[in-house]
Write a structure and sequence with these properties.
A nine-stranded mixed β-sheet has the order 3-2-1-4-5-6-7-8-9, sandwiched between helices. By secondary structure, it is of the alpha/beta class. 44% of the residues lie in helices and 13% in strands. The protein is globular. The chain contains twelve helices and nine strands.
Length: 295
């Protein structure tokens, strides 16, 4: 397995051109937060905004909209039950994240099917949480979008057919190759692995720990991946996902030096500072001390 390097971080997270505007940094549509999981989609949206996404729109239960706008006025929001508006927003989005806090129900499965029918090869589609379980239980064909899956171990079992005890590096590597070429899979666990079908060797994190074992951690990671996916066109989608996943855990590890448990919202608020430090860094010391590289 490959390790994330200083070179990769600098390659992905680059300074912004002075001649750009919000449309250059991704138009994101986040779908989820059905009752009683409203907080999940809000944490995903927070991470996406703090990661630098140009425009973030959230489709969720109407009851969540007041809280969303109160906590994150930078994001737009609308009622997930408004299917006409949902179709309109699906066509406009460059990145679609579906699943954080999405209840496994018939209505959600119908929404997922609608998304699969409408997305195009020009769009990034990220499946997280409930969307993974809904897809695994369905007979849906995968759409011709740029696909990212972010399963935890039980969700990876549903996707791959590998029981937890069988989720070894070799078996997961083979299972990834069953997905369409170019599909990115973030196999979350104590030692998270990031794969892409069509390549034999993946990346494995050497940062992170039990201080991340709290609700909302995966939702925050999914939002961060969406934020990175909408930016940095100079590198592949795979490299964007790898970098977002690494930075998420590297920030958590740094925060754990002063916190017994690292709350996901704390990670989100640190993202802009760490991204800025990477673009400004001229010495290896930053990467060793703050991003845990060179251990």
């Amino acid at each position: 397995m490959k390790q994330i390097s200083e070179h990769l971080l600098k390659k992905v997270i680059i300074s912004r051109s002075p001649n750009t505007h919000k449309w250059n940094y991704g138009r994101l549509l986040l779908i989820g937060g059905t009752y009683p999981y409203g907080g999940a989609i809000m944490m995903a949206a927070l991470a996406a905004v703090y990661s630098g996404a140009g425009l973030v729109t959230v489709a969720t239960n109407r009851d969540n909209l007041t809280a969303l706008h109160s906590h994150l006025p930078e994001a737009m929001g609308f009622d997930l039950a408004d299917h006409e508006l949902l179709c309109e927003q699906l066509q406009k989005a460059s990145v679609i994240l579906v699943g954080p806090g999405l209840k496994e129900a018939r209505e959600s499965q119908a929404i997922l099917h609608m998304i699969f029918e409408q997305v195009s090869s020009q769009q990034v589609l990220i499946l997280d949480g409930g969307a993974i379980s809904l897809f695994a239980a369905s007979q849906f064909e995968l759409p011709k979008a740029q696909l990212v899956f972010t399963p935890h171990q039980k969700e990876w079992e549903k996707l791959s057919g590998l029981e937890l005890v069988s989720q070894t590096e070799d078996k997961s590597r083979r299972a990834v190759q069953n997905f369409p070429k170019g599909t990115v899979i973030v196999e979350k666990g104590p030692h998270t692995r990031i794969w892409t079908s069509g390549q034999e060797e993946g990346y494995q994190l050497d940062v992170g720990g039990p201080y991340q074992a709290t609700g909302g951690m995966g939702d925050t990671l999914a939002g961060m991946i969406a934020g990175f996916a909408g930016q940095f066109p100079q590198v592949s989608l795979y490299e964007r996902v790898v970098t977002a996943t690494y930075l998420h855990s590297a920030i958590a590890e740094k925060l754990s030096q002063e916190n017994y448990v690292v709350l996901p919202t704390l990670i989100s608020k640190e993202i802009p500072k760490y991204m800025k430090n990477i673009t400004d860094a001229t010495q290896e010391k930053f990467f060793i001390e703050y991003l845990n590289l060179g251990k």
